[in-house]
Amino acid sequence: MRKQIVAGNWKMNNDLSQTEALITDLKAQEKTTNAEVMVAPTAVNLSQACNSVKGSNIEVIAQNMHFAENGAYTGEISADMLKSIGVNTVILGHSERREYFNETDEMLAKKVDAALAKGMRVIFCFGEELADRKAGNEETVVESQIKNALFHLEAAAFQNIVLAYEPVWAIGTGETASPEQAQDMHAFIRKTLADTYGTEVADNMSILYGGSVKPANAEEIFSKPDVDGGLIGGASLKAEDFFAIVNAF
Ligand code: PGA
pLDDT per residue over 115-136, tens digit each? Predict the structure, then answer.
């Protein structure tokens, strides 16, 4: 059975006191749910956040990491560093990392390998830009992003991967893919996986949708058979909205 997951990507928001305040609010809003609930604060607050979530079922995850084990990479963070503070899941390949920090498929393949080698779980993000969709190329783009970064892996590695389809034109824009557009792409992703790795890997893969998911649209998106949850940006910064989305399952 694949897991339902709702992950909040806080991006470069919330200083230490805001991080603590939001986690306090999240703990107060938390209800029993089948979904795994995760939040990704900024790297400097991860350690404190790991302490603050204790007593809840919220997992603290990272927004990024480097592929090297250690060494002369000023400003970067390794898998071991994350693990040493209790962070075992990392988001990789977010479109903002690709766009503003020039992360390529090749670099992301190395990051995925580094995280998996350390026993971490990866939430791997990808998605087409508006021009791709307008040109009808969205499936080709998504297929190549997934294949270039992940298809060197053995089937067993996919147990520690979660996919997050995030059409770039829907991120932070208030424009969401329609539930049908999300479903069509998620079904295509699952088929792409099945064609190479077989139906077991494909059927067990959690595929999240991201891009302007809000309390008002979450239920319809999550009701689609191939949508297993969401990666939430803006709406994850308010505990009430975030848990309204979690509870949309
Ligand atoms: P958004 O961000 O919900 O603010 O559109 C989603 C994301 O970037 O993961």
Answer: 999 999 999 999 999 999 999 9
